[in-house]
Amino acid sequence: MTDGGADYCFECIGLASLMKDAFSSSREGWGKTVILGVDMHGSSLNLNCPELLRGKTVVGSLFGGIKAKSDIPLMVKRYLDKELRLEEFISHELGFQDINKAFDLLLEGKSTRCIIWMDK
């Protein structure tokens, strides 16, 4: 289907077995596997060393790769200075009693981000 493997593979579940599968599915020579899921069982990740030597890579990304100590205060400042307009990403605001409607909007592809208000 990919004629040799995918250029980029993403693992988002947090299972070492799927991390290995994602790595095995990447293209030899330049395939990149990005690990996003967190393995809660503390399992080891066993990879085929010759595949690494032939150019496949594995990287991890916790919280999108930000450096929390320096990046979060910077993002907060940009938000407060109106440089970062997060409100534009909110498509709906609903009360908790309408939480099922929020899921329906998501499944219908009509919601980008929905805020659920607990006190509405």
Automatic annotation (TrEMBL):
<dbReference type="GO" id="GO:0051903">
    <property type="term" value="F:S-(hydroxymethyl)glutathione dehydrogenase [NAD(P)+] activity"/>
</dbReference>
<feature type="domain" description="Alcohol dehydrogenase-like C-terminal">
    <location>
        <begin position="2"/>
        <end position="77"/>
    </location>
</feature>
<dbReference type="GO" id="GO:0008270">
    <property type="term" value="F:zinc ion binding"/>
</dbReference>
<dbReference type="InterPro" id="IPR013149">
    <property type="entry name" value="ADH-like_C"/>
</dbReference>
<protein>
    <recommendedName>
        <fullName>Alcohol dehydrogenase-like C-terminal domain-containing protein</fullName>
    </recommendedName>
</protein>
<keyword id="KW-0479">Metal-binding</keyword>
<dbReference type="GO" id="GO:0046294">
    <property type="term" value="P:formaldehyde catabolic process"/>
</dbReference>
<dbReference type="InterPro" id="IPR036291">
    <property type="entry name" value="NAD(P)-bd_dom_sf"/>
</dbReference>
<dbReference type="InterPro" id="IPR011032">
    <property type="entry name" value="GroES-like_sf"/>
</dbReference>
<dbReference type="Pfam" id="PF00107">
    <property type="entry name" value="ADH_zinc_N"/>
</dbReference>
<keyword id="KW-0862">Zinc</keyword>
<dbReference type="GO" id="GO:0005829">
    <property type="term" value="C:cytosol"/>
</dbReference>
